[in-house]
Amino acid sequence: MPIQTILHPTDLSDRCAEAFRVACSLARDHAARVIAVHVAEPRTPVGMAPSPPPPEGHRGGMEEWLRRSHQPAPGVQVESRVE
Predict the structure, then answer these.
(1) Percent of the chain at pLDDT exceeding 70
(2) pLDDT digits (tens, 9 = 90+) for 60-70
(3) Phi-psi region at 12: left, alpha or beta (left = phi > 0; alpha = psi -120 to 50)
(4) CB burial readout 49-62, b (16+ within 10 A) else e
(5) What's the pLDDT score for residue 74?
(6) Under a CB-based contact definition with an 8 Å cutoff, are residues 6 and 33 in contact?
(7) What whole-number distance in Å separates Cα of residue 59 and Cα of residue 54?
(8) Rounded-to-integer distance, Cα 77 and Cα 6, Å
(9) What is the enclosing helix (H) or strand (E) of 37?
(10) With 80 as the cut, is the pLDDT of residue 32 above it?
(11) Which residues contact 62 (CB under 8 A, 6 or more apart)?
(12) How far is it, in rounded angstroms, from Cα 63 to Cα 70?
């Protein structure tokens, strides 16, 4: 079965930036796409109810920042998601 999609989870650290370059290289070699995912964990103090998810505009801004910080190699399709 050929590789079609490579999932790149990221915490936006320098180590993840290097892993993203490797994911793009593999995607280029296999004509696959990369999905870069950052999970934005809400900060909830112990014993308190979870906070509501951020407004959609905030999520869109984070997705845009993720897209700008994870520039793909030429010819590689990258989709950015914030969950």
Answers:
(1) 61
(2) 666 666 666 66
(3) left
(4) eeeeeeeeeeeeeb
(5) 80
(6) yes
(7) 7
(8) 10
(9) strand 33-38
(10) yes
(11) 38, 40, 54, 82
(12) 10
Q: Which residues contact 31 (CB under 8 A, 6 or more apart)?
A: none
Say how far apart CA 6 and CA 4 lie, in whole Å.
Answer: 7
Cβ neighbours, 10 Å, residue 46: 4
Residue 56 has pLDDT above 70, yes or no: no
Q: Are 2 and 27 in contact (CB under 8 A)?
A: no
Please tell me which residue, 6 or 83, carries the higher pLDDT value: 6
How far apart (Å, rounded) are the C-alpha atoms in residues 47 and 4? Answer: 43
Beta bridge pairs of residue 82? 38
